[in-house]
Amino acid sequence: MLSLLEVGGSLLERVAAGGPLSLVLAASAFVLSLGYLLQLGSRHRQQQPAGPGDGKYPPYISSNIPFLGHAVTFGKSPIEFLENAYEKYGPVFSFTMVGKTFTYLLGSDAAALLFNSKNEDLNAEDVYSRLTTPVFGKGVAYDVPNPVFLEQKKMLKTGLNIAQFKQHVPVIEQETKEYFNSWGKSGERNLFEALSELVILTASHCLHGQEIRSLLNEKVAQLYADLDGGFTHAAWLLPGWLPLPSFRRRDRAHKEIKNIFYKVIQKRRKSGERVDDMLQKLLDVTYKDGHPLTDDEIAGMLIGLLLAGQHTSSTTSAWLGFFLARDKSIQEQCYVEQKAVCGEDLPPLNYDQLKDLNLLERCLKETLRLRPPIMTMMRMARSPQTVAGYTIPPGHQVCVSPTVNHRLKDSWIEGLDFKPDRYLLDNPAAGEKFAYVPFGAGRHRCIGENFAYVQIKTIWSTLLRLYEFDLVDGYFPTINYKTMIHTPSNPIIRYKKRSH
Ligand code: HEM
Fold this sequence. Notes:
Blueprint: H1 2-17, H2 20-47, E1 60-61, H3 71-76, H4 78-89, E2 92-97, E3 100-105, H5 108-116, E4 122-123, H6 125-136, H7 146-158, H8 162-180, E5 186-190, H9 191-208, H10 210-214, H11 218-228, H12 233-237, H13 245-271, H14 278-284, H15 295-326, H16 328-342, H17 351-356, H18 358-370, E6 377-381, E7 385-387, E8 390-392, E9 397-400, H19 402-405, H20 449-466, E10 467-471, E11 479-480, E12 487-488, E13 492-497
Helix pairs in contact: 1-2, 8-9, 8-20, 9-15, 11-13, 13-15, 15-18, 15-20
Bound molecules: protoporphyrin IX containing FE (HEM).
The site of protoporphyrin IX containing FE has 21 residues, from helix 15 and helix 20.
C-alpha cells in the first residue's frame, strides 16, 4: 500500500513540478471524486440564501469544469483574471478552484473587511498552517492560537530596532561586497539567483547572529533549500500525509536545522555570554504570564524569521534591479544620490545616511507597488461576513490581492508605469487606507518591513556603487506565475564595473 502511494506520490510531485497547470490536473485526478462532491456541495451552498434577513452571496463566476473550476485560467495569469473579474462583477466576487471557493475583496474599501476582521472570524491558521507548520515546526506562528503568535511577533520585534539596524548596515554591505567579488568586471548573470543566495547570508548574519551565520556552508544552504521546498503549490494543495519526496526532504531538513539551532542555543545558555543579537533577545524574553520560550520555540522562530524574509526580500531586490536597469536615467540619479548623501568618495554606508537615500527608497516603494511579493493574502471565513451588501458564507477562502489593489485604475494614475516620484505628488490613492498594502495591515501585518528596507537599500546602495546595470538586449523579465511568490522569469542582467 505504502509503495503504491509512494509511486503515486512521486509521480504526482513530478507532474506538480511542471507548474500549476499540470499540478492541478494531477491533484484533481488524485482526489477527483471527493472534490466533485465538494463542488456539488459548494454549488448547492451558492444557491442557498444564508437565512432569513441575510444579504445575497457575492456574484459567483461559474465554470463548466467540474472540481478544477477556474484553476487553469487563474494559474496562467492570476492578475489578468482578477482584473477582468473586477471589471465585470465589481470589487467582491467568488469562484471555485480545485474544490475550494475563493472570494476576492478588491480595492481599498472591500479589503477593509479582511484587514479589520478578528482572527476568529476570518482565520489565517486555517489556510496557512498546512504550509508553514511543517517548515517552522510546532508551537510557533500559525500552529498556535493567534494571541500566542501575536506575543511571539512582539518578542521578535524587540530584536528589530534601530540600534540593531545600525549594526546590520555594515554587515550587509560587507556580505554584498564579498558575494559579488566573483562577478568580476563585467558580464551577464542571473540576478535573482545571486540575490537569493546573498539574502540568506545577510538575513542569517543579521537575524540569527554571527555564530549561526558562521555555520552556513553549502550543506546548510542545501538544508534551507529543502526546507524551502515546503513552500509550494503542492504542499498547499495536496494532503500532508502523501509520501512525496519533497515533503520528506523538507521534514528531514527541518530536523537537521533544528538540531543545529538547538546546539547553538544550548551553548549560549551554558556559556552565560551575553551578545546583543536576536538570539539573546529570544533567550531573555518571556510570555505575558512569565514563562520563557523553549529551545524548540526559539529554533522555530529563527527559521520563520529567516524564511519570512527570504523570498519576499530577494524577489523584491531582483525586481528593483530590473526596474533600474530598464530606466537608466533613474539608475544614474540613484548613483548621484549615493555621492550627494554619503560623500564624493563613497565611504562605507551607515544607517543614518541610508535613511536619507530618498530616491532609492521611493524606487523600492514603487517596486513593492508593482511587484508585491505576496500577491494574495488569504483567510478562511469561519462565520458569515458582510461586505458591499453581500454575505460571504463560512467555508469561503477570503482573499485580498495587493497586486491588484496597487494598480487599480480608480486609485492610481498611470498605474502600470514605474514612477518613483509619484510619491512626491498628490496621489489619489493616498486617501485610501488599503490601496497600498505590500506588507499587509491589521493584526497579521508584517513585522519585517523596516528590516527589509534596511537590507534591500544596503544591498542596492552597494551594487549601485559597484556596477552599472543594463537589460540584456532590452529584455525585461516577464512574471513567473508558477512560483508562489511571483519571481522574474529568466532574470539575467548585464553589468559593468563603474570606474567612479
Ligand atoms: C520585502 C519584504 C517583505 C514583504 C513584502 C512582506 C510581506 C508581508 C505580508 C503581506 C504579510 C501579511 C500576510 C497576511 O496578512 O496574510 C507579512 C506578514 C509577516 N511578515 Fe513579512 N514581508 C517581508 C519581509 C519580512 C521579513 C524580513 C520578516 C522577518 C524579519 C517578515 C516577517 C513577517 C511576519 C512575522 C509576519 C506576520 C504574519 C502574521 O501575523 O500572520 N516579513 N509580510
